[in-house]
Input
Amino acid sequence: MGEGLASQGIKSGSARQYPCSRCPLRPLEIFRKFEKSELEFISRFKRGELRVEKGATVLVEGNHSAHLFTVLFGLGFRYKLLTDGRRQILNYLLPGDLIGLQGSLMGEMQHSVEALSPMLLCVFEREHLPTLYRNHPGLAYDITWIASREEQMLDENLLSIGRRTALERAAYLIAFIRARAAKVEVGKVNAQLPITQQHVADTLGLSLVHTNKTLRKLIEKKLIVWRDGGCEVLDIDALMKVARWEGLQERLRPLV
Amino acid sequence: MGEGLASQGIKSGSARQYPCSRCPLRPLEIFRKFEKSELEFISRFKRGELRVEKGATVLVEGNHSAHLFTVLFGLGFRYKLLTDGRRQILNYLLPGDLIGLQGSLMGEMQHSVEALSPMLLCVFEREHLPTLYRNHPGLAYDITWIASREEQMLDENLLSIGRRTALERAAYLIAFIRARAAKVEVGKVNAQLPITQQHVADTLGLSLVHTNKTLRKLIEKKLIVWRDGGCEVLDIDALMKVARWEGLQERLRPLV
DNA sequence: CGTAGGATTGACCCGACTCAAGTTAAGTGG
DNA sequence: CCACTTAACTTGAGTCGGGTCAATCCTACG
Output
C-alpha cells in the first residue's frame, strides 16, 4: 500500500516545472483552445505540482482529499476493493484526465488511485472549485463534461465486462488504452503500456491464469507483444475488430 | 423497439400536472432545499412533462436529443448493445435521476433508455443548459454532482460484475435498487420492483438460465420473492450481507 | 549467485452457458 | 367461456469457459 499525499511534498509557486502558460498538453489538437481569462484563472487555480513514483498510491478510498489533480504525464488507474481483497480496476488515468473530482464534490473518495508509471500531476485546491463555478461557467461546464466523459468510458467498460468474451475483453481493453494514449502522447510515442497481466486480470474481471492464456492468443496472432513487463500493440485495427469495438469518437475536449 | 421522442407529445405550459412549486419529490428529505431564485429558474427551465408507457424507449443510442429529463415517477434503465445484440444494462433510473445529460453535453447519446414502468418525466431544453451554468453556479455545481454520483454508482456496478460471484451480484443488485427506491418512494411504499429475470441477467452479465437458478437460491433463503412478474424484497439486510455491501451512504443530494 | 516479481504451463474442477422442454399466467379473439 | 398465443419463469442434461492449485521459468536487481 502507498502512503497517500501527506508524506509527499507538493511543490508550489516557483518550483513548478510547467506553468500553465507552457503546459505541454494544451497545444495538443484534441484539447479545445481556452480564452485568455480562462487560462489566467486556471493558472491561479493551480497550486503546484506533484510527482509520484511508479506504484505509489495517490488517493485512498475512504479518505477526504483537499486536492484535485490533472494528470500531466504518466499512467495510473482507479480501483475499488472488496472487503476480502478482490480488486476491480475501474479505469485508467492518462494525461489530461482529472483525478479526485468525486472526492472533491462528495467529500469522501469512493475509490483509490495508483500510479503505473512515474506521474506528474497538477494540483488544484478543492476549496476553489466553487469560485470556478461562480466566475467561470465555461470551465464549470467543462468539468461536467469531463465527468460525463468518465461516465461514458465506464459505460463502455461495463458493457465489455458484462457481455464480451474473455478474448474480446482483452482486445478491447488494450485497444482502448492504446487509442486513448495515442491522443495525448507528448513528444516521442512510447508504445509500451506499463501494465502487468495482473492489472489486466483485475480490469477484465478474470483470473490471472486465464488472463495469461487469453493474452497468449493475442500474442500468437501477432496483435500485441508482451515485453519488458509491459504491453506493446502491433495491430490496433485487428484488436478493434476482435473486440467488435468502433473506436473513440471524441473530437475536442476540455483540459482543466 | 420503442419509438423515441418524435412520436410522443410533450405537454407544456398549462398541461403540466406538477408545476415545480408543487413538485412531489422536492419535499423528500434526501433532497437539499433550494433557494427561491433557483426554484424560479428551474421552473422556467422546465419545458413540460412527458409520460411514457412501460416498455417504451425514451432515448436511443446514436441519436441527438434536444432534451434533458428528470424522472418524476417510475422506473427505467440505461443500456448498451453490442452489434450482435448482446445487451448490457448499465444502471437503473429512479425518481430524481437525470436522463440524457451525456447526450446534452456531448451531442450524441452513447446509450439507450427504456421504461420499466409507466414513467413521468420533467422535460428540460438542452439549449438552456449554458444559461443555467452562466446564471446559477449552484445549480451547475449540482449537475456536476449528479454526474459524479452516477459515476460512483457505475464504479460500484463494475466492481460487482467484475469481482463478485453470481449470488453476490444478484443480492447486490436487488439490495441496491431497493435501497435507492426506498429513498424516493413517494406516497405508499410500492415494494415490488417491476423487472424481469432477463433484466437481471442483462445487468449482471449472466445468462437467463443461470440468473434464474441464482435467484432461486435467494428465494429459497427467503430473502426475496418473485411475484406478479416482479421482485419483492423480504430481507434487505440479509441481501446486503450476502453481497458484502455496505449500503448507500448518501445524505443530501440535489434535485434538478 | 540469490531473490523476487512477473509470466507461463499443465492438471483438474466447478460455475456458468447452451439446448431443449416444460409450466404458469395473462391476455385475445371467436 | 374456452381455445390459442405469448411472455416470463423453471428445470434438467450435457458442455465448456474460466477458476484454482501447483510448478517452473525468466529476468532484473542487489
Observations:
- The first helix of chain B runs from residue 36 to 45.
- Chain B touches chain A through 50 residues (CB under 8 Å).
- Residues 165-166, 206-207, 209-210, 213-214, 228-229 of chain B lie near DNA strand C (CB under 10 Å from a C1').
